[in-house]
Fold this protein.
Amino acid sequence: MSEPASRASELDAADELGKLRERFVLDEVVYLDGNSLGALPANVPGRVEDVVRRQWGELRIRSWGESGWWTAPERIGDRIAPLVGAAEGQIVVGDSTSVNVFKALVAAVRMAEAGGSGSGSARDEILVDATTFPTDGYIAESAARMTGRTLRPVTPAEVPGALSDRTAAVLLNHVDYRTGRLHDLPSLTAAVHAAGAVAVWDLCHSAGALPVGLDEHGVDLAVGCTYKYLNGGPGSPAYLYVRRELQDRFDSPLPGWNSHADPFGMRASFEPAAGALRGRVGTPDILSMLALEAALEVWEGVSIEAVRTKSLALTDFFLECVGAYVGEGRVESLTPVAHDERGSQVALRCDDAGEVMKRLIERGVVGDFRHPDVLRFGFTPLYVGFADAERAARVLGELLS
Amino acid sequence: MSEPASRASELDAADELGKLRERFVLDEVVYLDGNSLGALPANVPGRVEDVVRRQWGELRIRSWGESGWWTAPERIGDRIAPLVGAAEGQIVVGDSTSVNVFKALVAAVRMAEAGGSGSGSARDEILVDATTFPTDGYIAESAARMTGRTLRPVTPAEVPGALSDRTAAVLLNHVDYRTGRLHDLPSLTAAVHAAGAVAVWDLCHSAGALPVGLDEHGVDLAVGCTYKYLNGGPGSPAYLYVRRELQDRFDSPLPGWNSHADPFGMRASFEPAAGALRGRVGTPDILSMLALEAALEVWEGVSIEAVRTKSLALTDFFLECVGAYVGEGRVESLTPVAHDERGSQVALRCDDAGEVMKRLIERGVVGDFRHPDVLRFGFTPLYVGFADAERAARVLGELLS
C-alpha cells in the first residue's frame, strides 16, 4: 500500500462522519461532482413514492392542507435555516436560483431607495461580482435595467474600494463556482453596510459545505440552490433569505398570489404577507420540493462545523495526494491554500482538461470540466471519504503520466 | 333508476373517451376538481421512480445529457404544443405561471416599444382582465411598474372599447377561473392587433379542455399551468408560448443562464438563445418536469376536439341534472349556457357555499369553493363520466333539500 493510501485508511477510520455515507445511494464510483448535483439520499425514493401515490393519487386536492403542501416553502426554509446560520422564519423555498437573484436584487435596490439617509444622493449603482457564475450577472443586468440603475462588475477584492454613496446593492458569491475560492462574507458585508448599501449573497457553493452565519454577520438578503451540497435532486427549488428586520421593506418584483396576505381571498389588490412568505410567488412545485424536504433529513444530528472540518481535511489531503501522484507542472491548483479562503472543491488548471475529465469519468472518478481548462473536484463531506480523494488523485496521476 | 341516472348510463355507454379513465388512478370518489389539481395518471409513479432511482441515483450528473434532462423544457413544450394548437419550437416549460406571466408581459411591452410604427405616440398602457385570477393582476401591476407603464383593469367585454394607440399589451384569460366563462380568443386577439398592441393569453383553465388555436388565431404570447386539465401534478411547471415570428424580439426580464446561446460557455455577457429557448431561465426542476412529461402521454391518440365535445356534453348534462335534482332557487349558475362561452367547469352560486362544499366532499363529491359564494365543479373529459355528473347533482340536491 502506498503511503497516501495507508494515510487514507487511517483518516477514514478516524472519521466521525464516515458512517453518514450509508444515508446515500452510492456505488463504486468516486463521486466528486456533488458541487453540481448531490448524490441521492437513501430516504428520498420512498418519500417521493408516497407523495406521488398517496398524497397526489389518493388524497389529491386535500393534500394542500392535509399533507402540508401549502406550507412547504416556509417549512423547508426553516429546515435549511440552521445550516446557513439563520433563525427560523427568514427563508422560503421555491423557484430557481436565477429567479431568486432577481427578487433579491430588485428588492435590495428598493430597500436602498426607501432607506435613504436623506442625504439626497441617488444610489444609482449596483455592484456585481465579476467572477460570478454567469446567471447572476445576467439577472443583475436585468435588475439594473428594470430599476434604472447602472451595473458595475468588480471582483470581490475590489468591492471595498468600489463602494460609495452611489451604491444601492451588492451581489456577491460566497464561494466562486470555478476556483472554489471562499470570499470573506463577514468583512464584505460590513463594508457594504458601512457604505449604506444592501448586501445580497449567493450561497450556491457554500450552503451545506461550511458555516455561513447569515444572522450573525448581518447579511441582508441571500439566495442559494439546493441541489449541490444539500442534495435536493436535479433542479430542486432554490431558497431566499430575507433578514427579519428587513422583511417589512421587502418589496418583491414578483408578487404572486402565494405572497399575498390572504391568498385565498382572491382579492384584486395586492397586500403582501408578513414575514418571509412575501418571498413566495406562484404555486410551489410539490414533487421537487418534498424530495428536497426528505433530502434535508440526512442532516439530522450533523453539525455544519464538523462538516467544515472534514471538508478542509479532505481538500488538504486531495491536494497532498495530487502533489504525490501527479507529475510536476501537469496541473496547477486554482483553489487557495489558506483554509479561510477555500470552499469545498478543488479546481485544477490542466491542459486538455475536457478530454482528461472524460477519461477520469471512464475510470470511475467523476468530477466536472469548466471551460476552458479547469478540472473541478467537489468534496461533499457527508459521503466522500479520504480513500476517494486518494483514488481520484492516483487515477489523475496515471492519466497524466 | 331515475330518468337522469338511466340517461347517464346511456351516455357513458356511448362515450368513446370513456376507456381513457383507465389511464388514471381513481377511486369511488366523484372527482370534479381536476380544474384545480388533475388526477394522477397511472404511468406517472413508475416514471418518477425511474427518474429518482436510476437517472438521479445511478447516472447522477450524466443524466443531464443521457436522460435528456437538459432539453426537457423544450421537448415537453413540444408535447403540449398540439393541445393548444401550436407548431413545435414555440413552447418551453418551466417556472410557475406567475413567473411566466411576468416574462410574457414585460416582453410584450418591449415588443410594442420596439415595433413602434413611428407614429411617435407612446404606448404607455397595459390592459389587464379585471376578472382575472388575482396573481395575473398582481404580476401585471409589477410588470407595469417596472416598465413605466400604467395598468388599466377592464373586463374582457370592455377590451375592444379600451384599446387605443396608447395600448402596449393586453393580458387576458381564456377561461375565467371563477365562472367558467370562455372568452372569445380569436376576436379579442384580432382587436388587440388592430390597435397595434401585443396579446398575452393565460390558458390555465382552457388548455387540455378545449381547442385553443394559438397559431391559427395569431396569439403573440401565452402562458398556462400544467396541473389542471394537463394532470402534471401539484405545482408542476408552467409553460410559455412565444409565437415564432416574435421570438427574435422576445427580450426576457429573466435572462438566466438557461436562455443563453451558449449556456456552458460561462460567458460574462448575455447573448440570448435562438427560438423559444430564450424563455427558459434557471436550472429546470427535473422531478416535477419529468412527471409532467409522463402525464402528457395519456393524450396519445386523443383529439382535443373529441375532448371538447365530451366536455360540453358533460356540463350540459350536469346543468340538466342540477335542474332536475336541486330545488328551485337554491343555486344559480354563473356559467354561460351558450357553448361558445363556456369552458369545462360549472360554477354555481349558492348560499353558505363553503359549508355545502364541505358536506359534498364528505359525501364523496369533490369540487371546490371559491370565496365568497361559489361552488366550482370541473369536468375533465379524460376521466369524468356522465354517471359522475349525475351523482354529483343528485348529492347536491339531497344536501340542499
